[in-house]
């Protein structure tokens, strides 16, 4: 049985494993591959110093091993193999490449270097496709490498020597075999276990997918726009034509239209129960696969932000993966992959000279930029990501699970409990600031507010909206009223500008402390975070403080906003389910709330990005 369908592509071919390693043989035959073994005679003595990285050395050695066998077989019996597979495993520690020990002393030296530390195990693999034209061998080489981190425990001299005397280290890179006695030396590993044993089977299968199922052009285009690279998994590919190398995809780039949408079934063939004719495979579900991969794209972005990759690349000059890796203190191979994913997602530009930020990444992803969403992204990574792992129980029970984040104010976040440290608080304020900057301008300009000379933004956090109001209305004085823990952090987010003098910050709790007097009260993104009783309590306090003619401006995300497409309704709706206290309300419900609390003549205007603005005027009691 061939569990991974893409291996079936090799079943009809003459495949040769150019290796004497019993581990490689076992890994590949366990996977269902049929092959001959012809150990390579290539001497592993390339000049290591001439390679820019250890993995480049391993890949080149693997390539030479495979080519030597391909050439020898071709010359010897003119029975050219179809595919030759070569591999080379090395251990690297502190910049040093360790291969197989030459004697026991050498094994001791190697194991002492690894003792108590992390090291990398890297396997380079070469897949050589061969053909013979007029007696000449023609080869096409595909290569890749895989890196795994291994950590050794602190080991005594005695134990090391006992292990060396077992004889196990001698034919193994780094002087140990993780699959046998050497497993006892290992505290943990990060990455593919089989890669350490000598052959990265998972990556090999992915590489075969890349070779035998090349992505269609429209998939690549779409992937560049908004997803991770299409060849990321191999499990979903069927192999109806095992042994042939035609792509398994249908010709047309049909999306996730559901059964029957293809419209080009062959007349005459019998329909099956699922609506498809036997001779015709169903449309390739590209959009669905993209959706399945969506979380990986988010996590790649989160990780790149966490490593501050975009900070490293904020200068115009492109940089190489190896330099970036050392600046962010990460492995070269891991960093390179992440950089490539970011380039595919359109977050970075990649050229021969290296990687650099796109304009949009410079604007939004650099951590200290004026418009940075870095804190918001980190908030999503640390809190929302975990929160959404509880979605199933939230859906089953219909109860709130904890702490939602989308569109929330620092007010909500601070009262949710786990954000106790100053660092957490600062991140929340930064997250709220990043979002508020995006929505402040349309909110400030939704109505003509020039009749007011003073405003109070309740829960206004860093004053992003307050500044926009002050900028738009030159005689307006704005007070930002928020919790002391929020106000403590706002100075970090202030920029110079002529409106700065007309914005002041006041610390207080709008449920308990007296509210500043103002002609216009603003509640932007506040009410959705509270249940009805709290909303009524807050509006009552605002209404009591507002004199006749005073305004109340509400800005909220509503399901019936005119441009709701701007923010996926689904995500917002799920967020509401997961939010601890709040609830989503319709435009009509917000209008009723205003009227109930003495604000009449309610006007409504879109405020962009799925938000609506409502402006009510206090009627005389
Ligand atoms: C680190 C480690 C390596 N190894 C083995 C895998 C490889 O067989 C060997 C590294 O040497 P290689 O030179 O990669 O391979 P090889 O000499 O065994 O076989 P060939 O060159 O003919 O392909 O070390 C383990 O078996 N377990 C381990 O934990």
Automatic annotation (TrEMBL):
Superkingdom of the source species: Eukaryota
GO molecular function: nucleoside triphosphate diphosphatase activity; O-methyltransferase activity; protein dimerization activity
GO cellular component annotations of the record: cytosol
Cofactor(s) the protein needs: a divalent metal cation
Disordered: region residues: 243-279
Swiss-Prot/TrEMBL keywords: Hydrolase, Methyltransferase, S-adenosyl-L-methionine, Transferase
Biased composition (Gly residues): 255-265
Listed SUPFAM superfamilies: ITPase-like, S-adenosyl-L-methionine-dependent methyltransferases, Winged helix' DNA-binding domain
Domain O-methyltransferase C-terminal: 388-599
UniProt KW Methyltransferase keyword: yes
Composition-biased stretches (Basic and acidic residues): 243-254
Domain called O-methyltransferase dimerisation: residue spans: 289-367
Annotated InterPro entries: COMT-like, COMT_C, COMT_dimerisation, ITPase-like_fam, Maf-like, SAM-dependent_MTases_sf, WH-like_DNA-bd_sf, WH_DNA-bd_sf
GO biological process: one example: methylation
PANTHER family recorded: BIFUNCTIONAL DTTP/UTP PYROPHOSPHATASE/METHYLTRANSFERASE PROTEIN-RELATED, BIFUNCTIONAL DTTP_UTP PYROPHOSPHATASE_METHYLTRANSFERASE PROTEIN-RELATED
Subunit structure: Homodimer.
This protein's name: Acetylserotonin O-methyltransferase like
Organism field: Propithecus coquereli
Gene: ASMTL
